[in-house]
Design a protein that fits this description.
By secondary structure, the protein is an alpha+beta fold. Among the domains are: 87 residues, Pdz3 Domain (Roll); 76 residues, Pdz3 Domain (Roll). Helices cover 45% and strands 20% of the residues. It has 14 helices and 18 strands. The protein has a four-stranded mixed beta sheet with strand order 2-3-1-4, with helices on one face. The protein has a four-stranded antiparallel beta sheet with strand order 8-7-9-10, covered by helices on one side. It has a four-stranded antiparallel beta sheet with strand order 14-13-15-16. Helix 1 crosses helix 2, helix 1 packs across helix 12 and helix 9 crosses helix 12. The mean pLDDT is 87.
Length: 453
């Protein structure tokens, strides 16, 4: 039943995103009187082809059996279907290739535009319906966990911020600190450390440091929490070593680490190396586990959230307030994703440990039906889908956009033959990436368990 709930949530979210994305291509094509031959949710590849289909006017609507995406087949367009027979005939007025470049460009960017707008819209509606969760500082019995940037300014892990300038700091909201320092030139922070109040004076260039290093607001500080294990994904070092949900990690390599903010930086010293993790199980048994960390210094165990230890409050938004806040929330998520991709390209984050297929994505929905998590995941996937589709790879929307922009700028159209070859290369590149991601997931979640790696 747990697996069925996970799969159902994933397929519902994926179906919603695919249908709306393809509508972003379908409706502009129809507006510009371009024939759409097929509109499909999932792929209708051999051997099973369509699970269901119906013809309405000039368009066949259907559901394929392979849930790896969907598509609209537009007449006169070189796409992943590799149907090039029609391209051998003279161009017809209703074909994609007969339309002006600006119309073809609008048709191609329609899908990603819908996904961007959908992601922002879902975040906005979540803020309006659920509100924004926050932890009141009165709840922080362990204080705050600080980013390294704040630690360099004189903060310590476990400090409690009481006031920023003369304004009380009554909720864990990093944006308040950034706004006060950068916009209002505040430099004095009142904290409580070891039960005593004291004043910290921030340096004159603190605003420059905060803006130049571009630390994500949500990571500047957070409620400090003990490192209790919430989950250990299959195939990761923690699961292979034998750590379980509920274990409290209290030491790494014999060095005490009572809190997650102590463990994370210490783990960076053991990238790709074997060491020992000490845990407290059932609050009574102290156990040691031999473990080899990943190349980016992770054990593959998710900590329990702040909500496990603290009371969570919610800030309510009006309907109109929710929209700009939802856009800001979506842009922040995109910024973090792009930074993560950048780290992977630089080799600072191991691709094999962070690249997953539909299996990994599906597992993120969880085994319980939680509508708030469902919509949050759907919004995030919508933005990721938009971002990935904009990559300038032939066979993706971004590849077509790249060639169309070239045509608009140079007034020279890329030949159908060149497009056919480019799409073929792009298709096999994407197929190879999908196979790699799927194989990586299969190894992580199943095969590696039999080999103990």
């Amino acid at each position: 039943m747990d697996t069925l709930i996970t799969i159902t949530q994933f397929l519902l979210s994926l179906s919603l995103l695919i249908i709306l994305h393809e509508m972003g291509h379908f409706f502009p094509a129809r507006w510009f009187k371009t024939r759409v031959e097929k509109f499909y949710l999932f792929f209708d590849a051999a051997p099973f082809n369509s699970l269901w289909k119906v013809k309405r006017g000039e368009t066949e609507y259907g559901i394929g059996w392979l849930p790896l995406g969907g598509y609209v087949k537009i007449s006169g367009m070189v796409d992943e279907s590799m149907d090039t027979e029609q391209l051998k005939q003279p161009a017809q007025p209703w074909e994609f290739r007969s339309k002006p470049a600006w119309q073809r460009l609008i048709i191609m960017i329609g899908g990603v535009t819908v996904n961007f707008l959908l992601g922002f819209f879902i975040f906005a509606m979540m803020l309006w319906g659920y509100g924004k969760a926050y932890v009141p500082t009165s709840e922080l019995k362990y204080g705050l966990a600080m980013d390294s940037l704040l630690l360099r300014q004189g903060f310590r892990q476990g400090d409690m911020i009481l006031k920023i300038g003369d304004k009380p700091f009554d909720r864990v909201e990093p944006a308040e600190l950034i706004e006060a320092v950068v916009l209002n030139d505040v430099h004095n922070i009142t904290i409580r450390r070891d039960g005593q109040e004291q004043m910290l004076q921030l340096p004159a260039d603190i605003a420059e440091q905060l803006t130049s290093q571009k630390v994500p607001k949500g990571m500047l500080m957070a409620p400090r929490v003990p490192f209790y294990v919430e989950s250990t994904p299959a195939g990761k070092p923690a699961a292979e070593a034998g750590l379980k949900k509920g274990d409290r990690i209290i030491a790494l390599d014999g060095r005490p680490t009572q809190f997650y903010d102590e463990f994370a930086p210490l783990a960076q010293e053991f990238k790709g190396k074997p060491t020992t993790v000490t845990v407290l199980r059932n609050e009574k048994d102290t156990l040691d586990f031999a473990i080899t960390l990943t190349e980016d210094g992770k054990i593959g165990a998710f900590p329990q959230s702040a909500g496990t230890f603290y009371k969570i409050e919610r800030e309510k938004y009006s309907f109109l307030e929710a929209f700009p806040a939802g856009v800001e929330m979506g842009l922040g998520f995109l910024d973090n994703q792009m930074k993560a991709f950048g780290q992977m390209f630089k080799g600072k984050i191991a691709v094999k440990d962070n690249l997953g297929s539909l299996i990994s994505i599906g597992k993120m929905f969880g085994t319980e039906w939680d509508w708030e998590r469902f919509w949050a995941m759907t919004a995030q996937l919508s933005l990721i889908l938009a971002f990935m589709n904009l990559l300038p790879i032939p066979a993706l929307d971004g590849g077509y956009v790249m060639f169309l922009l070239w045509e608009v700028i140079t007034r020279r159209k890329v030949s159908d033959k060149f497009m056919e070859r480019a799409v073929t290369v792009g298709f096999f590149l994407l197929l190879g990436l999908m196979v790699f991601a799927l194989g990586n997931d299969i190894w992580r979640h199943w095969i590696s368990q039999f080999f103990g790696k």
